[in-house]
Amino acid sequence: MGVVLDVKDLVVRFDTHGGSLRAVDGVSFRLEEGETLGLVGESGSGKSVTNLALLGLIPSPPGSVESGSVMFDGRDLLRLPASELRKLRGNRISMIFQDPMTSLNPLLTVGRQLCEVLEIHKGLSRREAQRRAAQGLGDVGIPAPEERLDAYPHELSGGMRQRVMIAMALLCDPEVLIADEPTTALDVTIQAQILELLQDLQSAHGTAIVMITHDLGVVAGMADRVNVMYAGRIVESAPVRPLFRSPAHPYTSALLASIPRLAASPDEKLASIPGSPPDLADLPPGCAFGPRCPRVRDACRAAVPPLVSLADDAARHAACIDSEVLHAAAPAEGSR
Amino acid sequence: MKAPLLAVEKLTKRFPVGGRSLLGAPRGWLEAVSEVSFTLERGQSLGLVGESGCGKSTTARTIIGLHHATSGSVKLDGVELTGLSRKAWLPHRRRVQMIFQDPYASLDPRQTVASILAEPLAIHGLAKPRERKLRALALLDAVGLNPRHVNRYPHEFSGGQRQRIGIARALALEPDILICDEPVSALDVSIQAQIINLLKDLQDRFELAYLFIAHDLAVVRHLCDEVCVMYLGRVVERASRTDLFDAPRHPYTRALLSAVPPAYPELEAERRRIVLEGDVPSPTKPPTGCAFHPRCPDRDRVPGNRCAAERPELAPRADGRVHACWLEPTRDAST
Fold first, then answer.
1. Reported ipTM
2. Disulfide-capable partner of B97 in A254, A260, B170, B324 (CB 3.0 to 4.6 Å)?
3. Quick check: B262 and A196 CB within 8 A?
4. B135 at the A interface (CB within 8 A)?
5. Global pTM?
């Protein structure tokens, strides 16, 4: 399979009142055709900033892309002029955001917003755009799509608005879809509808999806591979099943142990992670997870451990001096 | 027989909507909570679950007197609370306290932690000013915060720590009941677990009763002994934790449980998801009959279009379970 997006050593800096900080610090990953890559992390881990950078949407000031490259179709997105980037965004690379209420224009009808995309990127006539827009709404399971074209965003429910966002993102049949917490604002039954829809659309069109979320349940169900981020860096990267089965970074293990699950015993105490995520403007020396890590020792404070592949599995990477030990200690295949 | 600690009976709350006519009568009504009944005992946890707009938060707010009940009754140790004036409410309020979803919005940014924690004591005239400070220190310690930080302001704390302050404030009056409205849904995963564990510890320590409102079913399963599932203002199923999660009866409960991603990739493959059609209907125009029938995957199994015509009451059924569905329970007791 071909690589559609190749991110190398991305560094994004923000100047804040608390000082200058690196919100994303040396992130590299590849997105393959037709796959879903999960990007998991807590607030401030840099997962959303990474994706804003891919799209050239870092607000400047206070932010700036300091270094790195994002190759798409032979071109570096970070060095494209704004006009060229605009031709790609919403066309070959699309995005869905968490809150459909703030990402749709409240003053324009749904139809107008959808048609605009088609008129600009595909040069369709107004009538043809109308027809395609209605078809797009139908594809995402909106009943009576022709009538919905005349609706304003506030007239739709949250789930419907998110469907409109997805329809808009998919109108031009993009190669890459970036979905930033697409179901976080939705109720669980509506979340199930939207996730199923994304999977169906992906298998129909072969779109590669970057799914940014803090919800490990969503990742387990959707992603083929997962990058776990902490304090601006990828600390572990692996295919989804091995990651859940035998995490090779203490942060990943702790995160997996801390989520309440319906399938787990309710009387067990949840394993919580002590402390809170670090202040990016004032990171601890060495490994940023060190102060919260049960395995921390002097070597961890000496240097930031690099993200390296595991000895017995080149598809897996972890940034911890103990990753081989952790990986080996995890329960064997089949025991979940 | 001794009255239960909290007894809610046929609690109903309606709001006027659509403005008022010339004569001042409301143009329409929205029934946010309809005939909700349950009891809560000391040291027990009851979960109220459901999706946005199902009335779970309104139920809590009506119980604590932030809304006036339209009808029904709320009794604390047998004493009726609905219809009480603000002043008459005061002595009861110290026994029923609340913690909120957003730890950023629910603390006054201009007060130090010391004064946030002392304020309820001052209002209820419970301790001398000097003792209040000592109480504040003890409370911080109880919720796992460093008592040395008592003179800091809310913005100096992280989200999880702020939620701990909110819990400490609710505990200041030594309540019997703590109403928790989505207390962990705004927190990061690693912090959520800390707060859930803290709530469990505090319950054991102080014999607190929790009315726990949440949309996250896995969280509810961790904290609650009994659960009420709400849909469009009504309780559609009430069951013990084990019954509800191991053998849900109402079709809505089943769909809700099946929609939760299991967070195990292996289980994901074999999971049978019941994906509901459509959205939750507007409570201003509730469907006829059973409010869930337009989305119910099982409605065709009930003969004679009964679901659309007649509303099933929440009542004990033949299988000993309490839910509101026309479906004969014996036919699917095995699932």
1. 0.77
2. B170
3. no
4. no
5. 0.84
